[in-house]
Write a structure and sequence with these properties.
The protein is of the alpha/beta class. The chain has helices spanning 21-32, 68-74, 103-116, 150-153, 167-177, 195-202, 214-226, 254-257, 262-275, 288-294; strands at 2-4, 10-14, 40-43, 45-47, 55-65, 79-89, 118-121, 128-135, 138-146, 185-188, 206-211, 232-235, 245-252, 276-283, 298-306, 309-316. The chain has 2 domains: 2-146, VC0802-like (2-Layer Sandwich), CATH 3.30.2130; 150-316, Rossmann fold (3-Layer(aba) Sandwich), CATH 3.40.50.150.
C-alpha cells in the first residue's frame, strides 16, 4: 500500500478538527516524516488516501508550473479520446495568501483545463478524475484519488466495548505503528474486541491479536469475520508470548476502568519491550517515568480527545 518513488510526486490534502490535530500530525510524521498546519503536503511517498481518516485525497502530479496558464497549455497532453474526464480544483479550508483563489475563478480554471484535454469533459460520471491545486506559489495538476471512509463502515460492529478506541483513532494508530506494511509483522497483545485489528487488517497490515480474556477474544474474532477479514486472535497473557515482532500496539486504558496496579502495567510494558522492536502505547495518563523505568525511549507522541478525557499516543523503541 505504501512505497517510495523518486520519479513520482504526490500532493495530499487533509481535514481534521482541533481535537484531532495532534493525532493527524503524528500520522503525517509517520507517513511523510513531516507535518503541516496548512492541511496540504507534497511528498514522494505514495499512500492510499483511504488509509487515513484525515486524508481527503491524493494528486499524482503529472504537470506543474509557475502559473495556471502553463498548466492549461500542457492540458492537451493529458486525457484520452476513449475516456471522459473531469477536472476539480482542490479547495483547502482557510487557504490564505498567494494560494487563495475565489470560487468563480476556480470554476473557470476547471473548465479551461478540461476543455483543452483529450476526450470529453463529463461532470457527473467521468472515467478519470483530475485535480488542479496551487501550493506554495506553484501550480500542480494530476490524477486525483479521493479518499473513501472505510473506517466509517467499521463503526457498526456486532461486538462493542464502551472503552474501546473509536474507529478513526484506531485506524490512525495502526498507521502510526505501521506506516509501511511491507515486510512488517505486528501484534496487538491486549487486543480487546479488535478495534485496532479490524482497521489494521483492512489496510493489509500483517497483525495478530492476543488477550488474556477469552470472551473478548471471541468478540474480536467475530468482529474481524463480520467485515470479511481474516485474523489470528488467541487467548494469551503477554508474558506467555515467545514470538518476536517488528511493532506492538498496546492500548492501556486500565487505570480508569479496572484499576490495574503499576506492577500489572509494568509487566505489560516490560514484555512489550521484550517481544517488539518498536511499541506504540495508548494511555490515559502520562507514563514517561514508567516508560523510562522499563527501558523505553520515547520517539514521538500526540494527544487525542474522547469525550471528557484525553488519550496519549506514544511511540517508543
Amino acid at each position: 500500500m505504501t512505497n517510495n518513488s523518486r520519479e513520482s510526486a504526490f500532493i495530499y490534502t487533509f481535514a481534521y478538527n482541533d481535537a484531532e490535530r495532534s493525532l493527524c500530525h503524528l500520522e503525517m510524521r509517520s507517513f511523510f516524516g513531516a507535518d503541516t498546519e496548512t492541511k496540504i503536503i507534497k511528498s514522494h511517498v505514495k499512500i492510499n488516501p483511504s488509509r487515513s481518516p484525515f486524508m481527503k485525497g491524493r494528486v499524482e502530479i503529472l504537470a506543474d508550473g509557475n502559473t495556471v496558464e502553463e498548466i492549461i497549455a500542457k492540458a492537451p497532453n493529458f486525457g484520452s479520446e476513449e475516456e471522459t474526464n473531469k477536472v476539480i480544483f482542490l479547495k483547502i479550508n482557510d487557504r490564505q495568501g498567494i494560494d487563495k483563489v475565489e470560487n468563480n475563478e476556480r470554476l473557470q480554471i476547471e473548465r479551461a483545463i478540461g476543455s483543452e484535454m483529450q476526450g470529453d469533459f463529463d461532470l457527473h460520471n467521468p472515467n478519470q478524475l483530475y485535480a488542479i491545486v496551487p501550493f506554495k506559489g506553484r501550480w500542480y495538476f494530476g490524477l486525483y484519488t479521493k479518499s473513501e471512509p472505510i473506517w466509517f463502515k467499521h463503526m457498526k460492529k456486532p461486538r462493542e466495548y464502551s472503552t474501546a478506541l473509536s474507529t478513526r483513532v484506531a485506524r490512525s494508530v495502526a498507521n502510526i505503528a505501521v506506516p509501511n506494511p511491507e515486510g512488517v509483522i505486528a501484534i496487538d497483545p491486549c487486543c480487546g474486541i479488535g478495534t485496532v485489528l479490524v482497521e489494521a487488517l483492512s489496510m493489509g497490515i500483517d497483525i495478530v491479536g492476543r488477550d488474556i480474556n477469552p470472551l473478548v477474544c471471541d468478540g474480536s474474532r467475530e468482529n474481524i469475520a463480520y467485515f470479511g477479514l481474516t485474523g489470528d486472535v488467541k487467548k494469551s497473557a503477554i508474558e506467555e508470548i515467545v514470538e518476536s515482532y517488528d511493532v506492538a500496539i498496546i492500548d492501556l486504558p486500565y487505570n480508569l476502568y479496572t484499576h490495574a496496579t503499576w506492577d500489572e502495567q509494568f509487566t505489560i510494558l516490560k514484555h512489550a519491550r521484550r517481544i517488539a522492536k518498536r511499541v506504540v502505547i495508548v494511555t490515559i495518563e502520562s507514563m514517561d517515568e514508567r516508560l523510562e523505568e522499563v527501558g523505553f525511549q520515547v520517539v514521538d507522541r500526540c494527544v487525542t480527545m474522547k469525550q471528557q478525557f484525553s488519550r496519549e499516543i506514544v511511540i517508543c523503541k
